[in-house]
């Protein structure tokens, strides 16, 4: 697991639900095909993909989720990562995924 390495960039967005807000880096374009290929046979519920993500000096394990608005994926970014890396909504975020 986590043997494929993919470099990507995408904007940090805020999604607000009924009771909470979530923050995601949205991944679209050419990287979507790379993710699909690397995750063949390893997807979970709702098409999720387990990943080890790195932004700057921060690495954590999470899942990518399909994001229909861009026919791509959304990477959840928890508050500790946003704080450690000084990220704000609208930032273009460079990251590394291990799938």
Task: Please give a structural write-up.
With 99 residues, the chain is an alpha+beta fold. The chain contains two helices and six strands; from the N terminus they run ββαβββαβ. The termini are close together. The protein has one domain: AF2212/PG0164-like (Elongation Factor Tu (Ef-tu), domain 3, Beta Barrel).
Attribute tags:
Elongation Factor Tu (Ef-tu), domain 3, single chain, 6-stranded antiparallel beta barrel, globular, 2 helices, alpha+beta, 99 residues
| Poorly predicted runs | none
The CATH topology assignment is Elongation Factor Tu (Ef-tu), domain 3
Number of domains: 1
Main beta sheet strand tally, sense and closure = 6 strands, antiparallel, barrel
Strands of the largest sheet, in order across it? 1-2-5-4-3-6
Question: What fraction strand?
Answer: over 45%
- The CATH architecture name reads Beta Barrel
The string of secondary-structure elements, in order, is EEHEEEHE
CATH superfamily: AF2212/PG0164-like
* CA-atom Rg in angstroms: 13 Å
The helicity comes to 10-25%
Distance between the termini: 7 Å
Helix vs. strand class? alpha+beta
Gross morphology: globular
Supply the number of helical segments.
2
Brief sketch in words of this structure:
The chain is α+β, with helices and mostly antiparallel strands. 16% of the residues lie in helices and 48% in strands.
